[in-house]
Amino acid sequence: MDNTKRIRIITGHYGSGKSEFSVNYALSLREKIEGKLAISDLDVVNVYFRSRGKKEFLEEKGIHVIASSVDAPTLDIPALSAEIHTPLLNKDYNNIIDLGGDKVGATVIARYRDMIDDDDYDMFFVVNANREKTQNAEEVMAYIDEIEEASKLKVTGLINNTHMLKATTLDDISRGQEVCREVSKARNIPIKFISCLAEIADQIPSDYEGEVLPLHLYLRDEWMM
């Protein structure tokens, strides 16, 4: 059973794989929990690879998708629906928030800060050690500081999502795990998940911290792989 808080905010560096993780995490949660589950797409930074792009698919799976108040999912319009309030305030909902990258994207959640109780949320920072500016612990911690300041929230968990898309190897994941371990030790932030392609999920050593979440690349067309 998932032991995270009711509101789960997914943040991190631009292009780290937040939205892909969010979609896969929502589908995984749907199999484990009962009741209402929503994914709120608050990404006003990246025009591509948004969780809102899979709205019909997710709705069919029993996951309510909340995004822009403008019905144009491929346009970069920072118009957020007032419906975002509902899963924040209604305790009957489990809520995943797919936040935009960097401190610019993190600023969006600050406008809802007074709706989020301190004991009712987790904020997970996605680490892709193959991305520039998050290739070592010092860079990751600097990003965490920026996002915490912008969001007015605290990072409560780390996600090792170190990858090279379909070229990802166990070496990539292992390098990311070491970076996450350094950050975890320095900041006392637990490693909550290791997300990787389903094809290599069973190769993850048993002593690696974090729940292994096998990923399917739902947000990329075949030609992008």
Description:
This protein is α/β, with parallel strands linked by helices. Helices cover 30% and strands 20% of the residues. It contains six helices and eight strands. The chain has helices spanning 18-32, 55-60, 85-89, 102-110, 137-151, 170-187, and strands spanning 7-12, 36-42, 64-66, 93-99, 121-127, 157-160, 191-197, 211-215. Strands 3-2-4-1-5-6-7-8 form an eight-stranded parallel beta sheet, with helices on both faces. Helix 4 packs parallel to helix 5 (137-151) and helix 5 crosses helix 6 (170-187). Mean pLDDT is 88; it is low at 69-77.
Q: Secondary-structure map with pairings?
A:
Blueprint: E1 7-12, H1 18-32, E2 36-42, H2 55-60, E3 64-66, H3 85-89, E4 93-99, H4 102-110, E5 121-127, H5 137-151, E6 157-160, H6 170-187, E7 191-197, E8 211-215
Parallel strand pairs: 1-4, 1-5, 2-3, 2-4, 5-6, 6-7, 7-8
Helix pairs in contact: 4-5, 5-6
List keywords for this structure.
single chain; 225 residues; alpha/beta; eight-stranded parallel β-sheet
Q: Measured on Cα atoms, how large is the radius of gyration?
A: 16 Å
The helix fraction, in percent, is 25-40%
Number of strands: 8
**Which sequence of strands runs across the widest sheet?**
3-2-4-1-5-6-7-8
Overall structural class, as computed from helix and strand content, comes to: alpha/beta
The stretches of 5 or more residues where confidence is low (pLDDT under 50) are 69-77
Q: Counting H and I runs of at least 4 residues, what is the number of helices?
A: 6
**What's the story with the biggest beta sheet?**
8 strands, parallel
What fraction of residues sit in β-strands?
Answer: 15-25%
Helix and strand element order: EHEHEHEHEHEHEE
Average residue-wise pLDDT? 88
